[in-house]
């Protein structure tokens, strides 16, 4: 067993903890690696290194910081295949999907290379007689990122490129289920010229997370993961005086109006529901056809496509969907399918019995594409985030019923409407209470120069990630009012100065 270690102050280290957990290949169900789980002391070593690196890094000209990120970006382009392979080996997603993840993360690095422009301040001349005011954005210090298993490269890259560009030093605590990507990233940042201690990786679980949340030298925490943990991170981090952005889970609805292009809608649903085995926070897990006729046509077209899904390992270029991440998660997803049947939903395509026959992959954590019809809002398969290849059809009779359904859900990460009617599309985009909206776009993930974040129980804290929201999160504003002696002398003034 090879151990996946931490990366602190420019080198790999196993730290002082003796706790390890195996890392599995979900495609085979086998484990050949383990990851170390940090103790409180390991976290302290990383924070100390990041704190020591901050004064110099924060004063490094932003153009120089940007150039290091630019070199890192070139390395990422050159080695995207290698990173994608590392992701697939521990996450299970297909190779092309992993490459897509790398590219979407790289785009945030691209955004961050504009650091000198992003950090330009404000200046007001003559706010009073001979008095000027300047407002600048300064870094916070040591900041931490705690990330989920489903995007082991992209989600960290939502965070650290912007944090580093703004002059912070960073500690990444990746998911313990697919930790290898984080170490490649750390080594490539060093290769790009990042000074030791500016970017560190601490592997671990709740012990490491709690140590970060309670460490007095960690000034801000970015989190992406499930809603209960997001809520916990936000409550604990803010109680300890930290700035916190915590993105949580999702249940994303796609409304299909009677005038929608049906071929487009069906293909969009296939990719959005079953891509990455449904393990995306922007996956569509609820289809909302408006009118019974649309629902019947939709289900009829979906069924053969779901049955024909090519489910297999990333090593097979023909695979459209891989396994889910762990045996426990596979059992949880199957448990939800059992629950849907028990609650009275109509199981149209059953993924529970899918058997992988490819040699060497028989024990992987595969679940077949699953479709439920006649799902109602009280059912657990509707209310909960399943995070697997399970699509629920909730039939509605009008546009307004569809909107009311979405508004009744606790999660509000992403949503989409499929229609040819500009009036309906505009009303939807304007009125829907969800953070990211697609019009004939099933997974409306904003590009790096915009910001990513949901509403309601899909986010805790004030700032979405990357784009200008990311810059605001990772900086604090300092406003300086300046007057220079003019040669005139005045007696001391004891009343509030006004312009008069
Ligand atoms: P998770 O909440 O189990 O874990 C996320 C991180 O929190 C990991 O680093 C993990 O080690 C840590 N963690 C887990 N339990 C903890 C605890 N009790 N105390 C402290 N830290 C803990 O999430 P996951 O299963 O890795 O990822 C899937 C979830 O992430 C889904 O709910 C998905 O919707 C969500 N997600 C959301 C977004 C978004 O942008 N909103 C993006 C990707 C994933």
TrEMBL record:
<dbReference type="InterPro" id="IPR016162">
    <property type="entry name" value="Ald_DH_N"/>
</dbReference>
<dbReference type="InterPro" id="IPR015590">
    <property type="entry name" value="Aldehyde_DH_dom"/>
</dbReference>
<dbReference type="GO" id="GO:0006574">
    <property type="term" value="P:L-valine catabolic process"/>
</dbReference>
<dbReference type="InterPro" id="IPR016161">
    <property type="entry name" value="Ald_DH/histidinol_DH"/>
</dbReference>
<dbReference type="InterPro" id="IPR016160">
    <property type="entry name" value="Ald_DH_CS_CYS"/>
</dbReference>
<dbReference type="GO" id="GO:0004491">
    <property type="term" value="F:methylmalonate-semialdehyde dehydrogenase (acylating, NAD) activity"/>
</dbReference>
<feature type="domain" description="Aldehyde dehydrogenase">
    <location>
        <begin position="16"/>
        <end position="479"/>
    </location>
</feature>
<dbReference type="InterPro" id="IPR016163">
    <property type="entry name" value="Ald_DH_C"/>
</dbReference>
<dbReference type="InterPro" id="IPR010061">
    <property type="entry name" value="MeMal-semiAld_DH"/>
</dbReference>
<keyword id="KW-0560">Oxidoreductase</keyword>
<dbReference type="GO" id="GO:0006210">
    <property type="term" value="P:thymine catabolic process"/>
</dbReference>
<dbReference type="Pfam" id="PF00171">
    <property type="entry name" value="Aldedh"/>
</dbReference>
<keyword id="KW-0520">NAD</keyword>
<protein>
    <recommendedName>
        <fullName>methylmalonate-semialdehyde dehydrogenase (CoA acylating)</fullName>
        <ecNumber>1.2.1.27</ecNumber>
    </recommendedName>
</protein>
């Amino acid at each position: 067993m090879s151990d996946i270690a931490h990366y602190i102050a420019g080198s790999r280290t196993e730290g002082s903890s003796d706790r390890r957990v195996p890392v599995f290949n979900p495609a085979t169900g086998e484990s050949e690696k383990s990851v170390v789980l940090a103790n409180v002391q390991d976290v302290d070593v990383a924070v100390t290194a990041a704190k020591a690196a901050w004064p110099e890094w924060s004063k490094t000209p932003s153009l120089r910081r940007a150039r290091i990120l630019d070199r890192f970006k070139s390395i990422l382009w050159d080695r995207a295949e290698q990173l994608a392979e590392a992701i697939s080996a521990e996450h299970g997603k297909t190779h092309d999907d992993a490459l897509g993840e790398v590219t979407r993360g790289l785009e945030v690095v691209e955004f961050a290379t504009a650091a000198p422009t992003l950090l330009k301040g404000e200046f007001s001349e003559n706010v009073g007689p001979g008095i000027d005011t300047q407002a600048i954005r300064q870094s916070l210090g040591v900041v931490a990122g705690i990330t989920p298993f489903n995007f082991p490269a992209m989600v960290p890259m939502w965070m650290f490129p912007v944090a580093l560009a703004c002059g912070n030093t960073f500690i990444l605590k990746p998911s313990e289920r697919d930790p290898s990507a984080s170490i490649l990233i750390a080594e490539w940042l060093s290769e790009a010229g990042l000074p030791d201690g500016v970017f560190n990786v601490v592997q671990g679980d709740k012990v490491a997370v709690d140590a970060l949340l309670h460490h007095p030298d960690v000034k801000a925490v970015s989190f992406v993961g499930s809603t209960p943990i997001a809520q916990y991170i936000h409550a604990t981090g803010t109680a300890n005086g930290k700035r916190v952005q915590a993105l949580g889970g999702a249940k994303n609805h796609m409304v299909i109006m009677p005038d929608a292009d049906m071929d487009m809608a069906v293909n969009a649903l296939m990719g959005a529901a079953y891509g990455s085995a449904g393990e995306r926070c922007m996956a569509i897990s609820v289809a909302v056809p408006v009118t019974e006729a649309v629902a019947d046509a939709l289900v009829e077209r979906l069924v053969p496509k779901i049955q024909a899904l090519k489910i297999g390992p990333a090593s097979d270029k023909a695979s459209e969907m891989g396994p889910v991440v762990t045996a426990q998660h596979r059992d949880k997803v199957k448990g939800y399918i059992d629950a849907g049947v028990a609650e009275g939903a109509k199981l149209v395509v059953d993924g529970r019995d899918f058997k992988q026959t490819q040699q060497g992959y028989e024990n992987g954590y595969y679940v077949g594409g699953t479709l439920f019809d006649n799902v109602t809002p009280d059912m657990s398969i509707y209310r909960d985030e399943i995070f697997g290849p399970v699509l629920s059809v909730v039939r509605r009779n009008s546009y307004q019923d569809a909107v009311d359904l979405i508004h009744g859900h606790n999660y509000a990460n992403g949503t989409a409407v499929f229609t040819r009617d500009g009036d309906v599309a505009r009303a939807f985009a304007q009125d829907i209470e969800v953070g990211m909206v697609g019009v004939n776009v099933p997974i409306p993930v904003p590009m790096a120069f915009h910001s990513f974040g949901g509403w309601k129980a899909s986010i805790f804290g004030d700032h979405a990630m990357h784009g200008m929201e990311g810059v605001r999160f990772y900086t604090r504003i300092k406003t300086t009012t300046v007057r220079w002696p003019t040669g005139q002398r005045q007696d001391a003034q004891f009343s509030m100065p006004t312009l008069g």
